[in-house]
Amino acid sequence: MKKAYWNYLPLLLICLAFPLVASAGNGLGIKGSKHDFSGEDWNNGTLQYGGEVCRVCHAPHDRGLDLWRDADVSGLLWNHKMSTAEYSMYSSNSMAGTIEDQPIGRSKLCLSCHDGTVALDAFGDGPNNGNGDMDTALTGRFVIGALKDGSNLDLRGHHPISLQYVDNDKIGTNGGLHDPADQTWYDLSSVALSLEQGRVECHSCHDVHNRVSVPNTQVLRAGIREGQGGAEHASLLCLTCHNK
Fold first, then answer.
1. Which of 2, 30, 163, 213 has the fewest beta carbons closer than 10 A?
2. Signal sequence span per UniProt (predicted)?
3. Residue 10's pLDDT is what?
4. Which helix (H) or strand (E) element contains residue 164?
5. Residues 126 and 48: beta-carbon distance below 8 Å
6. pLDDT tens for each residue of 146-195
7. pTM, whole model, 2 decimals?
8. Do 47 and 231 meet the contact criterion of CB atoms below 8 Å apart?
């Protein structure tokens, strides 16, 4: 009996250690994250649904049905006003894979706040929604580069979104792309599952419902600097997909 115990001890130790490894890159939930607006002045209880975390983006009983239909997504109960802007999309002679003429799916949801054309408090059906302009509401903390005030809708200086990744011609080639079906993020979730219709979108790199254990990391699915977890984190986000 004692011999059998020692035979199984290494396996037991591996099983006990695995959750620690798997959770090393996990986020810590939306509360306290960049997307927790419950403490913002414009969401302090003066609106019909003020002070809530989730309702800025989601409605629990289909109030946002038409909104998420407009965004070509389902099941998200979207509750925030959509942007009607048109963007200059990324283009490059070296890029493989098709890119949509305009953002699709959940990237449109992200841009409904981050393109600078819609106020953060433009959600639900409260009587005071959408009073502030985006620049004032964001106070420079949640914006995407030159999109800050909504006057520049040029996405060509940002990583492409709505770009085909699955079956991309560069998969497996030297200096190209890894197969997303074979890759995992730092928390061991599948890269393929973070795509939408086989395309790279905003949420492919950003886990929008999590705050990571290291501050100021832009809710990324993996590290980009050594300071986010050691040398193995240097450009880990990029190298998870890019075969360099």
1. 2
2. 1-24
3. 47
4. strand 163-164
5. yes
6. 566 677 788 998 999 999 999 999 998 776 999 999 999 877 889 999 99
7. 0.77
8. no
In this structure, which long-range contacts are made by residues 126-131, counting pairs with CB atoms below 8 Å and at least 24 apart in sequence?
126/47, 126/48, 126/49, 126/50, 127/47, 127/48, 128/46, 128/47, 129/47, 129/81, 130/81, 131/42
The answer to whether 65 touches 136, Cβ cutoff 8 Å, is no
Which tokens sit at 112?
A: 């409904």
Q: 25 Cβ partners below 8 Å, 6+ apart?
A: 185, 186, 187, 212, 221, 222, 223, 229
Taking a C-beta distance cutoff of 8 angstroms, is the pair 179, 171 a contact?
yes
C-alpha pair distances (Å), 102 with each of 75, 114, 176, 201: 22, 15, 24, 12
- How many C-beta neighbours within 10 Å does residue 81 have? 20
pLDDT < 50 regions, the chain: 5-6, 8-25, 47, 127-128, 131-141
Q: Residue 142: which of 89, 38, 207, 219 has the closest Cα?
A: 219
Sequence-distant (≥ 6) Cβ neighbours of residue 100 within 8 angstroms: 89, 162, 163, 199
